[in-house]
Structure formats: structure tokens, C-alpha cells
Amino acid sequence: MKKKSYICALNMEKSILDLLEQLPPISLEEMGGIKLMNRLDRKYLATISQLEQLLALAQGKYYAQMIGGCRFNPYRTVYLDTPDEEMYLAHHNGRLVRQKVRVRTYLDSGDTFLEVKNKDNHGRTKKKRIPVQGLDTLVADGGDELLNKYARYTLGQLVPKVENRFERITLVNLAKTERLTIDTHVKFHHWETGCDNTFDRLVIIELKRDGNVPSPVLDILHQLRIHPSGFSKYCIGTVLTKSEIKQNMFRPKIRKIEKMLSLEGGM
């Protein structure tokens, strides 16, 4: 029953599902054994048609993570911020040292985590998290202890701001020195304004690799003319669902995405 509801929610092109099925599977347990000790992260933005080409070129070079028989897994994330959006504005104003606090749920399993992400002035991101039952139990589940260690805020200073939902593919190269997460069908909801928005045909790719080891996907991305591009789901989601907020730094990014998707033939 879970798999049926998952497929119905996915609404992904059959050609992409077929290409994913041709990649050998790797289990969540096997993924847990892959330690990227000197991790470098880089994001890329693409379209659904480019994703199809990427998966075709990835054949014979990557595993696809499989959970519950599925190579596509749905996520839900709620970002917390101060009432006046201090964390959003730190990113908007170009502060290099910044953080985000979020509650992420893996919808296939129901597992939920409170996470703190800290970015330093060298662009490195460190993430700490604890399992929680949900938004209503963050204090009881030890959320303040996590924030006391790794954040500049307490839970009492934060409120839910932006929620997103998306489906994720996770690929691992055969040498197991990199992970590639591919997020599609990203939808946003703002808890304060009640507004919804989506970049339904946008694909957000994040390459996580161990130092500067050889990477098969870098050649593929170059071949497809997919270039590095920063992207914050929280910040872009905020701009798309709260029109009155300060947003001039992010508008060029949004216009670029809209142009890319219009050439693709849809938003």
C-alpha cells in the first residue's frame, strides 16, 4: 500500500523511472558505511529533461539508493526562524557564517529529525541532528539541548516559517567516494502568509564528494552544460511565498530559474 501511494504522489515521467530502475541498487545500510571525511559540497540547477539525460549517461557509473523498494523518496522539511527572519536575512545580506534550523521528515519511513546546519566562512557546512516525534515535541525530545550546543537560538525564540516537500534520488559512484542527491517537484508553503508556490520542473542537484577525487558526474554535468549554482530551499521558498520580505539579492536567481524553466516548457 505504501508503494502504491508513493507512486501516485510521485507523478514522475516514466522514462526517468525506467532509467533509475536500470541503475543497480544500494541499500540505506550500505549508504551508512560511506564516510566522506573531507567532504566538498556543490549545488547545480537543472531541468527535468536534463535529468533524463544525466541518468542515461550515469548508467554503469552509479548506484541508486533504494528504500522500501523505491529509488525515489519523498521528504518534508519545516524551517524555523525568528519572527523577524534573522536567519533568512543573514543569508540575504551575504553573511558567510550563518545557520539554519529545520525539522525534516522522511515520509516513507516517518522518521523525523531536528537539524542544525552551520556554515563557516570557508563555505563548509556541518550538520547536527537528533530524532524527534514532530514539531510539537521538540522541547520534550531534547531540542533545546541540541540548540544550546550548536545554535545561537533557543526553541522559544523560533517559529515555523517555510515548509517544503520534494522527492529525492540519491546516487553513489561505484568507488563510493561521492554522493549525488537530486531533488525534484519542490513545493513551498509559508506558515505565516498561507501562500503556496512551486518550481515543479526544477531539479536541484548536490554533489557531495571526498575531497578532489575523480568524479564521473562532473564530466556528465559539463557535457550537459549544467553549471554550479547556489540554491537555498529556505530562502528561495521564502521569497516565493512572502512577497513583502527583503529579497533583492535572490530575485536574479529566481528570474534565471524562471527563464530556464520557460525554455523547458513549464514551471
Structural notes for this entry:
- The chain is of the alpha+beta class.
- The protein has a single domain (36-264), classed as mRNA Triphosphatase Cet1, Chain A (Alpha-Beta Barrel), CATH 3.20.100.30.
- Helices cover 29% and strands 35% of the residues.
- The protein contains 9 helices and 11 strands.
- The chain has helices spanning 2-10, 14-21, 28-32, 48-57, 86-92, 143-150, 216-223, 233-241, 251-264; strands at residues 25-27, 39-47, 62-66, 73-81, 98-106, 111-119, 125-132, 159-173, 178-190, 196-199, 202-210.
- Strands 1, 2, 3, 4, 5, 6, 7, 8, 9, 10 and 11 form an 11-stranded mixed β-sheet that branches.
- Strand 8 (159-173) and strand 9 form a beta hairpin.
- Helix 2 runs parallel beside helix 4.
- The longest helix is centred in the C-terminal third of the chain and has 14 residues, at 251-264.
- The protein is globular.
- Mean pLDDT is 89; it is low at 1-10.
What's this entry about, in short?
This protein is an alpha+beta fold. The protein has helices at residues 2-10, 14-21, 28-32, 48-57, 86-92, 143-150, 216-223, 233-241, 251-264, and strands spanning 25-27, 39-47, 62-66, 73-81, 98-106, 111-119, 125-132, 159-173, 178-190, 196-199, 202-210.
